[in-house]
Sequence to fold (1015 residues):
Amino acid sequence: MKVEKISRSPLEELKRHVGVIQEAFKQAVIPDRVTIEYPRERRKYPENLRGFIVLDKSRCISCFRCAQICPANAIQMSYFENFYPGIDYTKCIFCHFCVESCPTGALASSTLHDMAFKSLEDMKVKPNQMMRLPAAIREDVQSVEYDVTKKGWRLIRKMELEDIKVVRILPKLKPRRAFCLEPESCLGCRQCMEVCPHEAIVMERCEITLEGQIVGKGCVLKITEKCVGCGLCVRQCPMKILSLKEVE
Amino acid sequence: MKEFHLDIPVEPPKELESLFLPIPREYVEDTYRKDEFLVLVGPQHPGSGHMRLIVRVKGDIIQEVIPDPGYVHRCVEKIAENRLYIQNIPLVERPSIMDSANFNLGYVRAIEAAMDIEVPERAKFIRTILAELCRIGTHLYDAAILAVFIGHTTGFMYPFGIRELICESLVRMTGARFTSSFIVPGGVRRDVDEKTLRWVYDATFAIEKRLKSFERIFIKNPTVIARLRDVGVLSKEEAIKFGVVGPFLRASGVEYDTRVVEPYEAYEELTWDIVTADEGDGYARFMVRVNEVSQSLSIIRQCITSMPDGSYISEQIGEVRGNFFDKFADIVLPAGEYTTLTEAARGTLLFTIVSDGESNVPYRMRIVSPGWLYLRGFMEALKGERLADLQAIYGSFGYFPPEADR
Amino acid sequence: MISTLFEIFKSNMVQIPLIQPIIDYLMQIPLINFIVALILWRPFFAVVIIPGLTVLLLYLLYIVWFERKLTARVQWRVGPLEVARPIRGAIQALADGLRYFFQEAIVHKEAHRPYFVQLPILAFIPILLPIAFIPAGNVVGIKSPYAVQLVVAFLALIPITIIAIGWASNNRFAFIGSVREALIYVSYEIPFIIAVSSMIYLYGSGDPYVAVEKQSIVPGAIMNPIAFLVFIIAMLMATSRLPFEIPEADQEIAFGPFVEYSGMLFGLVMVLAYEKLYVMALLFVILFLGGWSGFYCELLGDLNAPLWLFIKTIIVISILAIVRSMYARYRIDQAVRYSFSWLIALSIVALVIGIAVGWIV
Fold:
């Protein structure tokens, strides 16, 4: 497709001038205004907007997946009772890789997108601050919605406050537990045991007596019922003999 | 007209010695001996963007321009060598945030080529919609910058107003206004439902309606035509010789589009035209992009009406939500070099990933962005024009320093 | 001595029936009666109150706000809003002015210090002088049968101060801006003068009273539409408004001659173009839109004429303000070419029309 050549005749030029003046005066009389006076009115955002991340502590299995996938290194796990993620909003880029990585749906997105912090230290949000949406002073009195049809685009203002939703989509995953695929390859390095936050991995004692007899099953680990399927041991194992399996 | 000159020894100004110019001392002395001047435009100049242009002028006529890019060099390639493949997705979007989907697409396609992942049809269509939305967004952004460079503030506000609809479409589809990191190896991160697609379909008409206002007040504005026409002309031969890419190459009459030459995603199944122009001047470069916007709108509409059913992600990957880490964190590409060409909004975009076959980070990643490719052509187009035209030509090329510097 | 002056003032006072009781009361108090008489003395009233300094300041506050508001309206925006929200940001210009007033005015090392500081203030002289000559009915500063010519002559002085400002700034961009200002100056001045002289031919005199009287049936804009058009374009060029905002092009040369100014001094040079616009619009209203003639209100008395003149001027300027949101900036060579071909040709046509119509009427 070739772009049309632009005419150079003075008559065309005059016509274009008239077009410009017409449009400007039309807009001055009936403007197609699209400005939202932000703090006093808020936009209605779709539910899937990536915003402030909310943590459900009861679901978190401290698997560290969120912290390890974070491209900006914004998530730091801090310990109380268990390891829970805290997000440093100085670094967060709202890619929500962490939310997508969470196998239990402990992290959930919300439509809150306009946080303000008093200091740089406050931006490092602790896990307990992530449990609910932060308290907000709302100045808005009405909400604005984009009405887009084939005929055009206009703003609809409604005298209702837009509520900030927390959208939690649970992944379709069954509970999983770690299993050892080839126990005979185990080195007995016990890294899995050390890394396990739930003390779910126990090592059976293995002794070689003076007579040369082997007592116990050897360096075979036993994964107890405490396992929540976080997969830390799977990632830690140098021999890659551990894996996660779904359980009933 | 006869020129008169006085034989007065001229010394280059002292200030030029301390500015770390990428030009030799002799060049500066030579310039001043020939009764010419060096004008430094940028990086703090209101009409330069984040780069410095060393302009050699004789009177009001530009003799030569030496670019001094690199003010916004952010080591994207080097940082990428220390990150997981999946963590690089938000990174490669950063050089050009308006054009994020195209950059994301180029990078992900390189990974897919390496891992032999077959992308399902539905995902391809969704990706095409995203890429075209970002293309429109970038063209609107460039039009706005062009407008403000030639002093038309209304022309600046309108495209940014219209771009709000693009951002809103992206929010509804991906959850972020831009840099959505939505395209992952194997498909996209989430399915897009019918209601959202319908909304985007309606939005394309709304955009078209708003663009009519923009056309009357800016595109067909006689002062804009006067400023851009016959300015910064690149002939067909010159454009090919200087390696200009994208809409700027097509404005010089060359029918080259990566989407046609090496089709990817759903472009083969859709009907659309390559927009070209003959003049090769600033206005042709602008008009090509204006017409590309309407082509892109038509591509989006076709994509939505013929959107196939099926999965949004390849079966080799499986459901993403909850599995994101397990599926993508440990990607290790087979050893080799993988290159993809993408038609980003400003031109051909090249991604090369070199993998050593054992580590989960790229051994080397190379981005050749369109801005970097057409910088030479941009500099050549400036020659022989007036100093006041520098901003107009700059805007007509839509040169975006962060994209070129990476 | 004082009593002589008082008698002079008293003999030539503005008569406003609406506030006459208050004036009568005030005139009985010593000392205050002298001040009241001075304020209401016609020449003083014309130069300092209306259409002079006071309304000029009011106009500046209004036009800066209105221009931003109108531009915003055309551009799908809202414009200044947060300063005095209940009245939609109407005192934004006042806030800006205060900010400029308290900001540090930096005089850089390379500048020619005395001229750099003086010139923004000196530039007021050619703005204020024409106001003394522009009559509004009975209220007039200096009555002269050559008022129109004099106003044109004083207007021609303003670019010289701007060029001097550019020179005193001693800056690369200021220098380019001054050169551009000089080029624009020569290109608008000739069509402007021809357009004005065509109207002088039409009315047969450079006396504003004659001009207004002759327009009592048909306004000058209809009698000579070409001169009307040329005057508007010359006005846009003279006050460096888009599409001829070439000397100040902020994307190219960063406000040109005014690049080094800051604080109060910048505030002064920024309003220079607006003041020039005001004076030119006053002339425009007198020449083309019937001057101060309008509906006569008994209560206002002598104030009628200045008010009508002021209202017409404000309307003209408000309509012109929309041009800022319509056009891009021409290049300097294009602007000069247009003015030396189209504009001069049009102005000569206007001159012919002016002579012809003047001969018929």
